Amino acid sequence: MKTILLTGITGFIAKRIAVDLLNAGYFVRGSMRSTKRVQEVNAAVAPHLDDPGLLTRLSFCELDLMKDKGWSDAVRGVDAVLHTASPFPGGVPKNEDDVVRPAVDGVLRALRAAQAAGVTRFVMTSSVVAIQHKDVAPGEELTPDDWSKVGHKSMGPYAKSKTLAEQAAWDFVKDHPEMQLTAINPGLVVGTPMDGNYGTSLSLIGQFLTGKLPLVPNFPLAIVDIADVSRAHVNALTAPGSVGKRFILADRYMMAPDVVEILRTKYADRNLPKRTAPKFMVWLMSLFDAQAKQILPIVDMNLSADNQATTDVLGITFTPASEAILAAADAVVRYEDV
Question: Domain NAD-dependent epimerase/dehydratase: where (predicted)?
């Protein structure tokens, strides 16, 4: 049986990956900044296992993206690294280095530790934001060969962190060609979480349901179900042709008002946004709101992406975006009592 180091196991995506790895027969060594959250992870994972005894294959270690301590021990005896750990801020940070530096330094710390231990297989969680923040021509379809342009007018700190971190990983592999890297680039990850500790991942759905956004800007969102994202990570470990590739994880792009309309099919009684915010209003908001400033350049921009390689190489049949959105809404209603 192979052992996988899964960094950031307390995360929304990583908890689902842990479940899928254990059910697939792997041993999992999950990293977290503090082992005080071990009970939380065990409680989240256990109900979803095919056999309760599989939980004995899950162990934990403490790692910090900004510190060397523990990394050499963490990679000792593992067969591959799934690196999901990266800051995911709920808003726009005052200092972008608070997001950028842990993302970049963390993936390099993980890669160096793996390379030094002779662990060559490395799958990292990147993001579609490392692909889409560029000048896009009308009708252009984004592909895994596209890269976001650092400094683009639509790029915020989070997108910058994911772009620079993935670029740093590929640069490292150029210098160490024995390393077998795969990048998984999901869009807005929705669907059913393993527990109620899902951080900011479903916050947009929650904002729609609770009336915190009375008007919604008309901007594109790449929608993907968490189950598909997890399966892509796990399948990448063994899929022929996945090494050295990037994979877009999104069923499709949808405009934010269309997401609201899907929510309305089941949650019409909620205080959902009733109108689309005109672009001039988003512009006015952008003068004092950092998030509106990031959205403004992509308002009314229809995006699309080529996810064929994800289907062909990783074997992912995407969950329809509408199903993933409603599953996320069900979870928000259940856990947050909105």
Answer: 4-242
